[in-house]
Amino acid sequence: MSEAGPSIEEPIEMDDTFAPQFVREVNQLKNHIKKVVEETDTRKFFRSVTSNLGDNTAFLRVSFNNMIGKMEEKEKQSLIKELIKMVHHVAEKNSPDRIFVGANYERVVDQLLRYAHQKGTISTNLCAEGLIMTSDFRMCSRIDQEKWKFIKDCIPKIDYKGIRNILRYILESQLRRLPFALSPEQVNELRIVEDVVLQIVDRDNNLMPPLITLSEVMRGMPKQALMLPRLTEKVANISVHFRPIADLTHVCGRAYVYPIAFHPTFFPQTSYWEDFGLNVISAYVQAHHTLPYRPEHTSNLLYTLYMILKQPLGKDSFQSSSKSKYKSHWDVMISVMICEAMAETESLPENEPIPRYQWDNIVNIVIHGMASHLLNPKNFFHVLKDLIKQCKYTRARDEVMWIVFQVVGSLNNVVRLDESVQEIVDLYNELFEGNVVWMGASDHPALFARFLAAACTWMILEREVS
């Protein structure tokens, strides 16, 4: 005995504006589709070995076209919605027999929609939306490649509002139904779907305003879509294009023109912008963003703080607050500042002396951060070591060890350094890896002091640990 088919005569959700005759026509059409798919005499005998429908839908296509041609646009949308619900209702039956039958329902409804579109009864937009929504993205049946090629050809003929709806249907309604584990064959089937989405979001195609594209992708892109590498890369590129626009909202000044700390509109005596910016308790984090990692995603106004600290007297414009103990973004920010200074040093000519101002400013910032409990010594040295390991900058290593020496020699009574010894050792090993040529200048106090910074650091640490 074969499994009984689902009940197609289910009440459909429609408001009171639809006439009872329209409701009857929809139910009759659903019964006709059921008869074509499930109740032929041949399929009763060969149900388990075949899913070929032949050309049994010819009469049904003509009947459907005549019926939908007399409807208003709102009724057409409701009818197609009911057909989509019928396809998904059958496809959700997980037995092997129902999977084949569900694919046949999808094929019949697709034929009706494409025939009506061919005759000009329904719009390209409505046809494409219906074809998209009838696909089984649970991957229980195969993705119809020819259907999605037809959808791809229809995309340039639709206005941007229709394109936006199609993008929502694919991302929010369909890709969200994908399983989190896909076989290589299933990934290959989804390439045509990925091509359609790539065609929509490509800025060169100019199918939608780029800002609308970005907002739709960021709002509705499910995690399953990240399994499609080309789509993920394309969306990341779109996000990068809008990053300069976001950076324009931050204070960006040049120290040699006009320091921000001296600007008339910068009033450091009030902590309003710090309390509601830097130290805000619940920072806004964009869901499923595809931007590369930036601390500013979780710390507002971080770029503003970074620019102020780099400028003259920027550090002196802040008031230390007990609420800001051990802010993790300070560790990353100061470490990046040190690596930027090391990169500038690497670009100098061989005999060019290292500029003193920037490194002296960084030393003052680090001492201020440690004393104000804005920097965690252990985490700071760990982050700095990881960045130097990636960048491989070594020319300014004496300057970095001078910073470590100042922290160890000046703040041993202010912060606990016993837990940071291993991080300092690892940082030293990254800076002085391999054969190191030690060079000092007894007639140059600054160079000579930095030459002895590493040795003095170990002497102090050995005394403290012992």
Tell me the number of helical segments per DSSP (H or I, 4 or more residues long). Answer: 22
Please state roughly what percent of the residues sit in beta strands, choosing from under 5%, 5-15%, 15-25%, 25-35%, 35-45% or over 45%. under 5%
- Helix vs. strand class: mainly alpha
List low-pLDDT spans: 1-12, 245-259, 269-293, 320-326
What share of residues is helical? 55-70%
Helices and strands, in order, run as: HHHHHHHHHHHHHHHHHHHHHH
Strand runs, count = 0
Q: How many domains comprise the coordinates?
A: 3
What would the principal axes of the Cα set say about the shape?
A: elongated
Largest sheet entry: none
Rg, nearest Å: 33 Å
In round numbers, the mean pLDDT is 76
N/C terminus separation? 85 Å
Pfam family, one: Med23
Subcellular location: Nucleus
Keywords: Nucleus, Transcription, Transcription regulation
Protein name: Mediator of RNA polymerase II transcription subunit 23
Quick synopsis:
The chain has 466 residues and is mostly helical.
Q: In words, what does this structure look like?
A:
With 466 residues, the protein is mainly alpha-helical. It folds into 3 domains: 20-238; 242-309, no CATH class; 325-465. 58% of the residues lie in helices and 0% in strands. It has 22 helices and no strands. Helix 5 (96-118) packs antiparallel against helix 6. It is elongated, with a radius of gyration of 33 Å. Mean pLDDT is 76; it is low at 1-12, 245-259, 269-293 and 320-326.
